Amino acid sequence: MNMLRRALAKNLAHLGLMAAVVIWLPSVAKAQELEDWERVKAAGFLKVAVYNKLEPYSDQGKGLDVDIATALATRLGLKIQVRAFNEDETMSDDLRNMVWKGHYLAGPPADILMHAPIDDYVMKQEKQVLFFNPYTRDDIFVARNVKALPELTSLEPFMKEGNKIGAEAASLPSQLLAGADSGSYSANLVNFKTPGEAVEALLKGELVAVMATRAELEGALAKHPEAKGGFYVSRVPHNSLPPKGWVVGMATKKGNQVLAEKLTTAMNELRDSGELAKLFQKYGLTYVRP
Q1: Share of residues in the chain with pLDDT > 90 (%)
Q2: Which has the closest alpha carbon to 256: 87, 50, 11, 26?
Q3: Domain check: are 80 and 104 in the same one?
Q4: pTM summary value
Q5: Which CATH number goes with the domain that contains 199?
Q6: CA 9 to CA 113: how far, in whole Å?
């Protein structure tokens, strides 16, 4: 289960309550420029940390997050050096190891971490980290077999015997389906190692639906264009889910303000040109502006 989904499961009360985030980055002295942006520019590449097992955003150094980082670096005249890593026990561990301190095995921190949660509660807890550059908004959706479930406006159909619904084990959707509404859906819950495996089971007819993030569902279904039309992805409201989803952005060490400013400008250009939306479309995803 990736950092963002883990944060959702543990800090649900604090997620989904924020509007679009605007990060004010103060101007800094010449010495600071030499410490972050000038250092990166002199090296000629941007060190980018991305998660493994977070498809379609990233896995084994490939995916949408890598493409976005590459496009940003190109606009700054840089190449990228990708550091793919497995999540640690907590989100704070990941931020410490990849953003501000480093790890005795993995080495010094990267310049930026992709797919960081832009959330007020998390930001206040992480004093050594600068969160910036929100680039999309994600949410919990349900992919369903439209023949089995022509309509879905609530989770009530999953109380009915035989309406099996899949989810990634230990994720927020799995926890919700196991415990919400006095455990009404637990008998029909089937857990999988990844959302992708759950979608494969859906396509085989072993399930009638899968609950995961919108991007995970759209990305998995995009690998099977022959199934288009037989399956539909939609949001199913529930009081245990963040009402507006959550914002995804980037993180860097607290002192890297100039680098963050440069990347923010590049992201604005990427968004305004339409290139960002095209990168999402490449993976079959709906681009949702944060």
Answers
A1: 83
A2: 26
A3: yes
A4: 0.88
A5: 3.40.190.10
A6: 21
